[in-house]
Amino acid sequence: MSWPVVGRSAAAAIEEATIAAGIPAFELMENAGAALAATAAAWLPRAGNEISGQTATVLFLCGNGNNGGDGLVAAPPP
């Protein structure tokens, strides 16, 4: 599936309209974090890779703001 790329102001307007339509911001963050985790897992070598025998280590750097929340959902602190 291909999604259009939007700029910062357009993304903010889409998010604002979605929340105004009744979808909680927390649910949006949960969905974004789950999608990020699934995408990262699909791109990374699988655990027990038969060729290299190595697994991938991922570092999520999460700042403040909405994207930081998405990252914390995708890779919760231990």
Q: Compute the average pLDDT.
A: 81
Q: How many β-strand stretches?
A: 0
Shape: elongated
Q: Please tell me how large the radius of gyration is.
A: 16 Å
Structural class: mainly alpha
Helical element count?
Answer: 3
Largest sheet: none
Q: What order do the helices and strands follow?
A: HHH
The N- and C-terminal alpha carbons lie at a distance of 32 Å
Q: Work out the helicity level.
A: 40-55%
Provide an overview of this structure.
With 78 residues, the protein is mainly alpha-helical. The chain has a domain at 24-74. Helix content is 53%, strand content 0%. It has three helices and no strands. The protein has helices at residues 8-20, 25-43, 66-74. Helix 2 packs across helix 3 (66-74). The chain is elongated. The N and C termini lie far apart (32 Å). The mean pLDDT is 81.
Topology:
Layout: H1 8-20, H2 25-43, H3 66-74
Helix pairs in contact: 2-3
Question: What attributes characterize this protein structure?
Answer:
53% helix, 0% strand, elongated, mainly alpha, 78 residues
Please sum up the structure shown.
This protein has 78 residues and is mostly helical. It has three helices and no strands. Helix 2 packs across helix 3.
